[in-house]
Amino acid sequence: MSDFSDLYQDLILDHQKSPRNFGDLPEANHHADGFNPLCGDKITLSLKTDEKGIIQDIRFKGSGCAISKASASMMTMALKGKKTEEAEKIFTQFHDMVMGKEGAKTTELGKLKVFAGVREYPARVKCASLAWHTMEAALHDEKNVVSTDDGSTP
Ligand code: ZN
Question: In sequence order, which residues have a C-beta less than 8 Å from that of residue 89 and are 6 or more positions away?
Answer without folding.
Answer: 108
